[in-house]
Amino acid sequence: MNAVTTTASTTTMASPRMGTKRVFGAYLAEARSECVRYMRNPGFMLPIMLFPTMFYLLFGIVMGRSEGADAARYLLVSYGVFGVMSPGLFGFGVSLALERDGGLLTYKRALPMPPGAYLLGKMLMAMLAAAIVILLLLAMGLVLAHVTLTAQQAGLLLLTGVLGVLPFCALGMLVGTFIKGQGAPGMLNLIYLPMSFLSGLWIPINLLPKVLQQIAPIWPSYHLHQLGLAALGLEHAGLVEHVGILVGFAVVFFVIAARRLRRYG
Amino acid sequence: MNPTSDVVARLSGAVKRYGSLTALDGVDIVLHRGELLAVLGPNGAGKSTSISLLLGLIRPDGGRVELFGMDPQQIDARRRIGVMLQSAMLPLTLRVGELLRLVASYYPNPRPLEESAALAGIGDLLQRPYGKLSGGQQRRVQFALALCGRPELVFLDEPTVGMDIDARQKLWSAMRALVAEGCAVVLTTHYLEEAEALAQRVVVMGKGRVLSEGSVDALRAQVPLTRIRCVTDLDAAEVAMWPQVASAERDGQRMRISTNAAENVLRRLLDADVSLSELEVQRAGLAEAFTELTREETVVEKEAA
Description:
The complex is a heterodimer. By secondary structure, chain A is mainly α. Chain A has one domain (17-264). Chain A has helices at residues 5-11, 20-39, 42-62, 69-102, 104-110, 117-143, 151-178, 184-198, 210-215, 220-231, 239-264. Chain B is an alpha/beta fold. Chain B has two domains: 7-220, P-loop containing nucleotide triphosphate hydrolases (Rossmann fold, 3-Layer(aba) Sandwich); 224-283, Alpha-Beta Plaits, CATH 3.30.70. Chain B has helices at residues 47-54, 75-78, 96-104, 113-120, 135-147, 165-180, 192-198, 216-221, 236-240, 262-272, 286-304, and strands spanning 7-18, 21-32, 36-40, 62-67, 81-84, 153-157, 184-188, 201-206, 209-214, 226-231, 245-251, 254-259, 277-283. In chain B, strand 1 and strand 2 form a beta hairpin. Chain B is globular, with a radius of gyration of 23 Å. Classes of the chains: A mainly alpha, B alpha/beta. Chains A and B meet through helix 2, helix 4 and helix 5 of A and helix 2 and helix 3 of B.
């Protein structure tokens, strides 16, 4: 799709060529629609925003008073990661499962939508939702729990959340290719809630049984938690390793899901 | 120019199998520029499979599929088509105008938004969320989405299902306007009167094959029968024995007679029963032709078995 072809189309009767600018516009329109459509859907946005903020309010701020500012700081990361997982898993997985069932995916495949615009749109939507969750938690942490953060730390946590949603998008997409329709939310909760617990997002990991502590690194959320803690200066070791593992998770889930999607539609 | 230049889409010898089930068994369909082709057939005849092949949603197991001389999976081929599918749950929270802008963005040279809306008769719905519309309104929005890219070929899969008569008439006139612009239309439908009212050419499918292809008149002429209905005391079994009567059966007070020589049979009827009343004579329509075609097919199959 190069720009040169636009001049050729005026001289031949052949198919009208799509200029690079219009193709870019199509990607943009798809991403915009995907964001608008979910931001307007309270059934999607409310649970995503309410669960992490309520938990943080309850456990991080109200009950955490006696534990001091460090607990509020630690739990800001924990509930941030917990909150970031859901737009990835649910925004991607549930919507894919429903749209495979409802025929929207078939419709889009029949239309001349540019390749990948569908997935890219959902990805950007999940990133936007993740950013909203992190910003809400940051505001609560700063105003209600008086966590002291530098602008850089807050920015890093936001970045961790916005990029950290991607492995969970890929996981949600994979589940969405296995399950069609209404069964997907239940299945995703079966992944979401135990995984959150087992990677120490509800109870700090060193309070979990030894066995669970040892297997924690198999969960992608564990690694994202470590990165979040590093963003707020609570952790320093093995950052490259955590990033590498998360990228690995994302690539593996995505490749399997994309192959399945191509085959089953 | 070469003779195939006005062909916009073509299935040749297309075969599609799902496991042991053969959905399409060597189907040939050619679609020309600016014509409205209706594809008819009972459920499971292979209509949807044929459309899916032409849209590039599935691959054939044999034969060839062409869309504007290209593989339909090539996006450049699909940039020249518009689509209205039977069951597509569009995002409920998006407004009609937003949906139109989104789908139009996929095309190189789309219609202005107002023009698409006016063609489909949804100019007053642009600000409404899609999920708040009635079924008929949603169908009209889907129709607008099918034509918003200024396509040269539009696929309409059962477009008027669930519409009331008024909405159906509106959609029909919109389809005629599209064809008048030079756009080719492929229409699958269960409603024979829809094909009768709109189509220049009709393809009848059954059991994965094309049973008949031609103009509506040619298809009708395949069944040279006329129906006679009247209130009479005559014995149906006796009338059925008359020359040139294909069948005669009683339905309460009325008798129904099929014949290929209505004039002769009528003369004899009126002579035989002077008190005969409520006489109706009707040429066999597409419905009869269609029943006849799909019935013959089952007979042939029994013979083959």
